Amino acid sequence: MNGLRVAIASALLLASTALCAQTTTTAAAGDKPWLDTTFSFQERAAALVSQMTLEEKAAQMANGAPAIPRLGVPAYDWWNEALHGVARAGAATVYPQAIGMAATFDVPLMAQISSAISDEARAKHHEFLRQDQHGRYQGLTFWSPNINIFRDPRWGRGQETYGEDPYLTARMGVAFVKGLQGDDPKYRKLDATAKHFAVHSGPEADRHTFDAKPTERDLRETYLPAFEALVKEGDVDAVMGAYNRVYGESASASKFLLQDVLRREWGFRGYVVSDCWAIVDIWKHHKIVATPEEAAALAVKNGTQLDCGDTYAPSLPVAVRKGLISEAEVDHAVTQLFTARMRLGMFDPPEQVRWAGIPYSANQSPAHDALARKVAQESIVLLKNDGVLPLSRDVKRIAVVGPTADDTMALLGNYYGTPAAPVTILQGIREAVPNAQVVHARGVDLVEGRDDPAATPLIEPQYLRPDAKSPERGLKGEYFRNRDLSGTPALTRVDSQIGFRWDRGSPTDNLMARGEAHGGQSVPSDNFSIRWSGQLLPPVTGTYQIEGAANDGFRLYLDGKLLIDQWKDSDRLRADSATVQLQQGRAYDLRLEYYDGERDAGVRLAWRMPGAKPPFEEALQAARDSDVVVFVGGLTGDVEGEEMTVSYPGFAGGDRTDMRLPATQRKLLEALKDTGKPVVMVLTAGSALAVDWAKQNVPAIVMAWYPGQRGGNAVADVLFGDANPAGRLPVTFYKADEKLPAFDDYAMRGRTYRYFEGEPLFAFGHGLSYTTFDYSGLTLDRTRVNAQQPVNVSVKVKNSGKRAGDEVVQLYLAPVNAKRERAHKELRGFQRIHLQPGEERTVTFAITPQKDLRTWDEQRDAYSVDPGAYEVQVGASSADVRVRSSLTVTK
Question: What are the boundaries of the signal sequence (predicted)?
Fold first, then answer.
């Protein structure tokens, strides 16, 4: 045994130095020391790598690492997503989008969320293994969280972040990472990945070419602190580089970022993965080097071990032979990757790995569904309320109007899984007040110029039946494991409506999660087809417009006649319609055929009935006939998001060019106000919206973000008072006419509450309640300290209203008469507390000047604390300071 340990140690030494080249040999049968759990993970990884050929090593450095059967190494794809739930892997609980989770200002809740996500990820991974599946989105290495700073509201991916503040981002990010990675002293539950390192927040269209050159003060005080916290406090196992350059270096091959800062300064011990195909950018777009092998060598030498893409596998062997990089350097990188896989328990007996025992029933469990509703409740921000909220449950007629009221995409944002039973805001309102008449009218499209398949109402279940004799309502669905509807269906069931959207998920995943489908009944996530058949029962005689929509192909038949033929691939949800004459009392044979090719899938069956008013007039009539109007609008992930190929008025490639509510919606909202009925505005979006007119003219405004699978219930809970809103804005809402700095300017001057000079529409940290809170008794245990001395701050907070509720107590530090340019104030503490009516609690914070007042001194090239006077501000937002005190820091 001692001899074997010496051999492994020797292999490790060879793998981690450039002293000599490795001699690779084939391991004798049964001689696999990397499976011996008495050795350290690093020793085992080095022993395994020592048996690989150069080509095998290079292939293992791609996200889609192939199997090496002779060494017992299974295929593994490192690419997995878990931004707000396990994403793109089929059925999973979908929590509010990351920006909504940040709006909770609830660190303990964030830990619960990520722990639940990691339970589902582990359960799904081991189920995939039982089915001998090793593909993308089936692993244990998750590329979340996104802790970039949301510095500009125009960025389409800002929804993925925790907002504009480095401190809030750090606190939420650390909690998220710890929940994902678990607390086992030996095995990681999952690997979390802090991304995108660093200085990355749009524009999306330029991300492959631009060079971010912030001052080092902005870099150190804004763009890096959250990453530093996740490395030092969260022990995050992976960091993802960005596409862009930083100070002329590719962020995915930057000596300054990856070696000088990440490893030497912060002591990072994990691995670095490039953003996807960012290695290609190094030579093709940034033109830092001329060839793929030079790009691969540069990235590995500067610290990127894993290539999300296809550059390393073919190029690194060439680079070694050309002398651009040594094989020992490759060995060191591959050893780091296999050490991570070893630490996840991938090469150990499952019974030894605590996390391998999580049952598949954890996926989409009732407890996780309840948590999704709770998180959504906590994320909702009440921006304005003139007393109209909460609504009375005695209301008789409610008009729910607007383009996102009944749109599942308004719940999901981006990077999401497939929820079992998503509850739209319309559905949530109907469930909350079953005795009220709730009328829905979409009114307008989301934005101008967009062919919106969700605009036409789905055919409701009462007008469909699977056959003439069935008491059920809906259509018979036959699900096939191929694109051409051939063979025996893998599953047959009755679907009440045809309105589905799957993000990289199988249409039967939810049935498997509920225990209703097993083994052979499953349908793949790609290359499947479905046939729905049954009878259509028109309620009135007249002219109908029947519409199908799908991503990819679909065909619609009525009484055997082909009405619509769109049997071809499509990269988006595409609609087509036919006009037909139907008679009341007749049953028409209906058949919809659909196939999905690759990536996202979706299909709809909708219609407009005879005599239906134009959508805009329909919405106004619904408002006139109601007691109250709930306008539900804003954005969805269809228009704001990551590097899109389509653009619309106000949107360019996923980013925004106009901060206002889209023009279609502004026109409708103003017309609704003119009906004279009270209007409650509910916004869905992943970014700040300039709703200046609404702030002046609409009595109540609710920000729901992208609230997840139970978002509709949570919004209804707030509207009708079952939940008292306490979400807070993690971003500044600017006025429509505010002239912001250029989008591609990475200087922080004029951006976010920390540097903004103007008056915001709604301030960072803002959020109202149905009760009131009083602050008093702010005390500091010392008011004069040096940089190393801690200060304990306490404040009394009392619920002075008549309802129980949460308050988010926020502490800011502001320099007095600062001698150099710096942030006006900075969040340095927050606590979300629950108080009963009349209850008072003392809230305490601990601050240390060396940590909480440090700034970057560019003259000294180091952090320092400026001596002088500071104000300690505690209150309900960055603009609603209730109590203040002074603190003096000495030299």
Answer: 1-21
